[in-house]
Amino acid sequence: MVSRDSKVQLAVVVATMALATLWVRFGTPGAVTSGLFVVACYVLLFAGSHVYLAARGDGGDVPVAARWRFVGLVSFAVVALLLGNTFGGVKLDGLALSKAVWAFVTVVFLAYVVYEARDGYRASRET
């Protein structure tokens, strides 16, 4: 049996691919607009179903608050990595900005995993 999450994810992927097709056909490519389009596609593909289900208040197996935290993580990571790649040539005290951004995103991701694990453990102890 296909879960509700899977159905919503499939719909988001189809919608994103349709949007990408329309962009390629009718869009006005440029450095900034293409970058923003790529960011939007990544956020939609990775977090689109979570946004939809969380906005509806439909947690299912995943609590609504955890869905919003995941959306925040994906949005942060995509924007941070876009900025890191855009300004990758900039050096901060001999260290490339892109490496600093990758390191920061890694730390935030690990903190997120630890937080979610702790939150899941606490939720399991309550029941």
UniProtKB/TrEMBL annotation:
Superkingdom, natural source: Archaea
Keyword entries, A-Z: Membrane, Transmembrane, Transmembrane helix
Listed transmembrane segments: 7-26, 32-54, 66-84, 96-115
Name of the featured protein: Uncharacterized protein
Origin species: Haloarcula saliterrae
